[in-house]
């Protein structure tokens, strides 16, 4: 330990010189070098740093708990939802900067990583809090975060909306109603729904909203017009092709996700059908790209930045020892009408 | 100070009890509470935390330098480039996770913030390093980072490619050549260029690549077909409309940015011209959306994730006291041929 590294010295000593000494010997470096690596300080060559890190991992070395949390709110995404990430990050950042906290971006690529899992990494950094986006950590993971006093909030989790972890969602059902009512108001009756994964409650809520609006208008739902897929462009393209090839194709499609809507656009383009003249399309999310698609997409806006901000406020409250009330927040969705929906045309004129 | 808060105690004492005492008195709280706020520790109500933070700011309180850096690499974006952010963040994260560092996301909205500037925030957190994307911090900002031993790398800065800060860019000129040669190979001669901001060297390099390919093929550049704009959808739309309204419109357009290309798509759609049958379009960047646009966009791919990784490696090397060699890295761009470009048709057949 060098006298100029009092924090490192204290941390090293807390764990006992022996452990750091063993690591140093295994890595063939000095104890101060191990200390620098442990504390993320400069002055260690990249190769050396990596060798020491690898040995620390092998030996299962843990930093003493007395070290304070890093000034970071960590946001953890699944790979698939990353096209929603920037807006969410912006929202969290707006809250975090008020407390001079950095916002950390982590993308989970499968539950476990080669080497350390995302959870091991988070525990080693000890952020002020964690926001899990579209991914509810497993109960064992939640317990480990709780044991380290790292609060957790989930943003629109795929699981049950009522659970132990505080969470932020959007009014998915209401959004489904608004989208469908808009198409009904334009005179459409043969309305298709390209939904999301059936196991995903947010997708189920959008579908239920669609059915509710159709029922309220007294319009029967043709089961051939109701499809489900993953939230992928390719699934929108496939269902769009199928739907347009039907003897009685739909005149309008409500998609549970903007990427599905862009897939339907491409199916229409390939089939020589015009949007909105021949086919009205409504999406869900309002991705940044929705207004740049041709034509600009009518869609149900999820307030992603506001949802990120709400999750940020919740996790900071938890970090301050306050239990957020309410435990679950659902923010309103709004229908954004652009150029992809039009009044049903008399087919003979089109 | 509580006995369970040795780090806070040490930090507080370093600065002198008086200062923390004054802050505590002004905020109407105890000194341990101020210490908790300073060290980002839980157990302080949100309102109290904010009041203390505000007074710390007013009083210009600075944390002592002896505190080690936070385990974070911070990536700073301008608001305008955020559609490129996720890929860059992924690349940086791939490098950072090898060292168990979080990747921080900061979006600069103008140079100065109400309250603390981005720089003040970064200095208060003391990250392991900073990557500035498309934004070269001012000399005074660079000096303050250097004074705090926080290394800085810029990713494709708008300024001179050769400067003091190590930097990562893409082969913009070569990308311009490849895009233009592809259109020439398809038989196009009336090729328009919708370029980026003239003061932006990356945009200038793409334009120069266009001119070089045209010259090499012995095809004169019609000055009416060369436009410049900001990297906005709206500028692509405007120039696209103008170009298509010419007596002799171009048969192909090379856009210096994918957003410009999407604007040209919309101009073509509105004018009843088909892409690629009536107009071939090439973009630059290869945004995630490029493959979902209708038709899928032929574009010059900037390897954003690889650029992020290279910037991450550079800044970690600097943090370890190693001067990166070379000082400037330009990664290769590649032409991705999709469905928006086609062989020049005999106009009488189209």
TrEMBL record, chains A, B:
Per the record, the domain of life is: Bacteria
Keywords linked to the UniProt accession: DNA-binding, Transcription, Transcription regulation
Q: Which InterPro entries match?
A: HTH_LacI, LacI/GalR-like_sensor, Lambda_DNA-bd_dom_sf, Peripla_BP_I
* UniProt cross-references to Gene3D superfamilies, sorted A to Z: 3.40.50.2300, lambda repressor-like DNA-binding domains
Q: Which GO molecular function entries does the Swiss-Prot or TrEMBL record give? A: DNA-binding transcription factor activity; transcription cis-regulatory region binding
Q: Residue limits of the HTH lacI-type domain?
A: 23-63
Coiled-coil residues: none
Pfam families registered for this protein in UniProt = LacI, Peripla_BP_3
User: What's the name of the protein?
Assistant: DNA-binding LacI/PurR family transcriptional regulator
């Amino acid at each position: 330990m060098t006298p100029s590294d009092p924090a490192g010295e204290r941390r090293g000593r807390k764990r006992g010189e022996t452990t750091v000494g063993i690591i140093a010997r295994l890595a063939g470096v000095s104890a101060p070098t191990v200390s620098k690596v442990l504390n993320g300080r400069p002055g260690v060559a990249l190769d050396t740093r990596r060798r020491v890190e690898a040995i620390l991992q092998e030996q299962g070395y843990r930093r003493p708990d007395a070290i304070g949390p890093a000034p970071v709110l960590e946001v953890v995404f699944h790979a698939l939802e990353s096209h929603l990430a920037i807006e969410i990050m912006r929202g969290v950042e707006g809250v975090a900067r008020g407390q001079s906290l950095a916002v950390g971006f982590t993308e989970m690529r499968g539950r476990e990583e080669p080497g350390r899992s995302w959870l091991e990494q988070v525990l080693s950094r000890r952020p002020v809090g964690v926001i899990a986006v579209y991914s509810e950590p497993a109960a064992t993971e939640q317990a480990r975060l709780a044991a380290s006093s790292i609060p957790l909030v989930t943003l629109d989790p795929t699981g049950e909306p009522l659970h132990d972890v505080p969470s932020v969602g959007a009014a998915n059902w209401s959004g489904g109603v608004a989208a469908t009512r808009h198409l009904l108001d334009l005179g459409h009756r043969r309305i298709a729904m390209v939904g999301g994964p059936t196991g995903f409650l947010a997708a189920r809520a959008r579908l239920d909203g669609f059915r509710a609006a159709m029922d309220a208008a007294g319009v029967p739902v043709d089961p051939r017009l109701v499809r489900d897929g993953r939230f992928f462009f390719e699934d929108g393209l496939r269902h769009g092709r199928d739907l347009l090839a039907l003897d009685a194709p739909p005149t309008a499609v409500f998609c549970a996700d903007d990427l599905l809507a862009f897939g339907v656009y491409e199916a229409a383009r390939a089939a020589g059908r015009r949007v909105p003249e021949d086919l009205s399309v409504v999406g869900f999310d309002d991705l940044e790209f929705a207004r740049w698609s041709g034509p600009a997409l009518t869609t149900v806006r999820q307030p992603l930045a506001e949802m990120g901000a709400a999750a940020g406020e919740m996790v900071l409250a938890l970090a301050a020892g306050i239990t957020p009330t309410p435990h679950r927040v659902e923010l309103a969705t709004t229908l954004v009408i652009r150029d992809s929906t039009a009044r049903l045309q008399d087919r003979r004129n089109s």
